[in-house]
Specification:
Glucose Oxidase, domain 1, 613 residues, binds adenosine-5'-diphosphate, binds magnesium ion
């Protein structure tokens, strides 16, 4: 059988569609296939991924005697997308003054205030005290010593423990007290200083120590110190337990890092925006300057470094000189990142504000020619690199049942969001925007302080659940399920992601399931809604110009992403929904399908869409 193959090499996924052309000239789609893109898009290395995808497809067909007549390759919009993020504020603790962290099992509850002392050498009697218990003291000895001090009339009101033994100690005390444990660097805790230890009841957060006025009250600080209190409170909010030690020199400050300004050169004019004015302000400038011609960051500042990193990375990918890189779109979002507090005692983190940016370049040279040549060699068949990607995506999207012109298609992949509008007369307008699936993952990674792109990717893709007990799992939507067999103990008390197929995976992150969910959803809304709205604006889509917005690309495989867009556009009286290419592919395979449809159209001399813009 003679077949033709449509091939879409994306930054992350290679998709193919295989069809035969029937005697009437119509394409008859046989199968499709998919593989991870190998090498950087636009290099001969892509051939390996294409082969895998084609063989995967042919395998499904199980037919021998296939003759490849022609292959069509997406003439990839030559864009390379990259992203970076950085903080613009930084909290510094000079001289150890606070410990605010969430040990799994603090002891006791309530607040204790007193002067710190080393449990191994109790001071004279008379003061209110807080015991500092280094890791070398076994919990049995620690509890015995605290009980002995109690009998001797000492007033010990709380304890700070290096080991994870808060509960073990507390269970053996005659009189309960708040105990904060797992304090890694306990040797840095100053002795003889006024200290407050607070442990909240399960399910609650510390109260006095997460409130500037609470802290001021405990340490008898005046109005001139309220700034100091505010910084501490900020770092302790949401913790179940916390310690604050006030040393005479102790200081804590928030430094605003010179974030610098970003310069956006456009076809109309050039504008410079201070990064700490926020993402909205930056995006307004991006819209205002006309077609973006380049973006620069102020040298010696964070944004300067970010833009530089992006350009260097892109130059390497595209194998062109850094100076020749011109950024053609910038997408900025506000974020909060968990940053380790400098000078903290127990790996404390504080949420600093930051900006994430994604940028995109149009490289001039034709990307896919090399791939086409290598493919032709490999398969001994003619290969044509043809068709603007966004237009092909449109043709493919039109095979979704219920669609009609005028139609907008938004293809959100890993690095870029490509959108196109096709009017009834067949004219097409398209735009390419920076900021897509990778940016969502990066935001999740940063805001939850995950430290692993792969782990953040799992959080993005799958719903969450909490393993309440060995026999009970509670899903993020409130559903609970009892397990017939006890789950593995490593899941106990943990938040997990639940892929549809495959075992749950523990999320390594200190935040609650509810918080993780909020961060995940916000990241998706920022990027997906942000870029869908931007696309509609740039394509100049009015209510009457559009019967629907079809969402395609890997990022709309998301279990909730397309719903966010559908809801937001419904408010604007636009119907939007996930594509279902050829009624069977879901939001996948639009470009590969479009390539084949275009060929059939040309074959039949039915080129309806003459006047493209
Ligand atoms: P490209 O066209 O750039 O090769 P794709 O269309 O394959 O990209 O989309 C890749 C993006 O889709 C990645 O950011 C990936 O995280 C995202 N993605 C893939 N599957 C899912 C899923 N099930 N849920 C959410 N995002 C997904
Ligand atoms: Mg794609």
């Amino acid at each position: 059988m003679d077949v033709i193959i449509g091939i879409d090499v994306g930054n992350s996924t290679t998709e193919v569609a295989i069809a035969e052309i029937t005697r009437t000239g119509e394409p008859n789609f046989l199968v499709s296939g998919m593989a991870e893109t190998t090498g950087i898009k636009g290099t001969a290395e892509n051939v390996r991924g294409v082969k895998t995808a084609i063989f995967a497809a042919l395998e499904k067909m199980g037919r021998k005697g296939i003759v490849i007549q022609k292959m069509f390759l997406n003439n990839a919009t030559p864009v390379i997308a990259d992203f970076a993020m950085d903080t613009i504020t930084e909290t510094i603790v000079t001289d150890s003054t606070m410990i605010g962290h969430n040990p799994g099992t603090p002891g006791g509850h309530g607040i204790g205030i007193g002067y710190t002392f080393d449990l191994r050498s109790p001071p004279g009697n008379g003061k209110d005290l807080i015991a500092v218990i280094p890791g070398s003291v076994p919990f049995l000895d620690a509890a015995a010593e605290l009980n002995r001090l109690d009998d001797a009339g000492y007033r010990v009101y709380g304890a700070i423990v290096q080991n994870d033994e808060g509960t073990l100690i507390n269970n053996r005390l005659k009189r309960e007290m708040p105990i904060v444990d797992e304090v890694e660097q306990i040797e840095k805790a100053p002795l003889g200083m006024l200290c407050a230890v607070e442990v909240a009841a399960p399910g609650y957060g510390v109260e006095a120590l997460s409130d500037p006025y609470g802290i001021a009250g405990i340490f008898k600080l005046g109005v001139e110190d309220i700034g100091y209190c505010r910084h501490i409170a900020k770092a302790l909010i949401g913790n179940r337990s916390a310690v604050v030690i006030r040393t005479p020199e102790g200081a804590i400050s928030e430094r605003v890092i010179p974030a610098g300004s970003v310069g956006i050169a456009g076809s109309r004019f050039t504008e410079s925006v201070a990064v700490d004015a926020g993402a909205d302000r930056i995006m307004r400038a991006v819209e205002a300057v006309g077609r973006v011609e380049d973006v620069t960051g102020e040298p010696g500042t964070n944004i300067g470094g970010m833009i530089e990193r992006i350009k260097v990375g892109m130059a390497k990918q595209a194998d062109i000189k850094k100076d020749e890189i011109r950024i053609s779109d910038l997408f900025a979002v506000d974020t909060r990142t968990a940053v380790r507090v400098q000078g903290g005692l127990a790996g404390e983190h504080v949420m600093e504000s930051g900006v994430g940016v994604a940028a995109m370049v149009h490289a001039d040279h034709m990307f896919m020619d090399k791939v086409a040549a290598a493919l032709g060699e490999e398969f001994k068949a003619p290969v044509r690199a043809s068709g603007v990607e966004a237009e092909m995506a449109l043709l493919g999207a039109l095979t979704t049942p219920g669609t009609a012109l005028p139609l907008v298609v938004v293809d959100v992949g890993a690095g870029s969001a490509d959108a196109a509008l096709m009017k009834e007369d067949g004219s097409v307008k398209s735009v390419h925007l920076a900021g897509a699936g990778d940016l969502i993952t990066m935001l999740i990674d940063a805001e939850l302080n995950i430290g692993s792109f792969a782990a953040a990717e799992r959080i993005k893709r799958y719903p969450l659940a909490h393993v309440d007990s060995l026999y009970r799992i509670r899903y993020e939507n409130g559903e609970a399920r009892f397990l017939e067999d006890a789950c593995e103990p490593r899941y106990y008390g943990r938040t997990v992601t639940v892929p549809e197929n495959g075992p749950p995976e523990v999320v390594n992150c200190d935040f609650s399931m509810e918080k993780i969910r909020v961060v995940r959803q916000e990241a998706k809304k920022k990027v997906l809604l942000g870029n869908v709205f931007r696309a509609l604006e740039k394509l100049d889509v009015g209510k009457d110009d559009c019967k629907g917005v079809i969402l395609v690309g890997g990022s709309f495989l998301d279990f909730e992403g397309s719903r966010f867009v559908t809801q937001a556009l419904a408010e604007k009286k636009l119907s939007a929904g996930k594509g279902n290419i050829r009624s069977v592919e879901g939001p996948r395979n639009a470009v590969a399908t479009g390539l084949i449809l275009r060929y059939a159209e040309l074959l039949n001399g039915m080129v309806k869409h003459g006047n493209r813009t």
